[in-house]
Amino acid sequence: MTEETLETFLNGRVRVMVGDLTRQTVDALVNAANSSLMGGGGVDGAIHRAGGPSILEECRAIRSRQYPQGLPTGEAVITTGGLLPARYVIHTVGPVYGMHNGQEAELLAACYRNSLDLATRHGLASLAFPAISTGIFAYPRDEAAQVSSEAIKAFLENDDKLREVRLLFFKPDDATVFLKHHRFD
Ligand code: AR6
Question: What CATH homologous superfamily does 4-181 map to?
Answer without folding.
Answer: Leucine Aminopeptidase, subunit E, domain 1 (3.40.220.10)
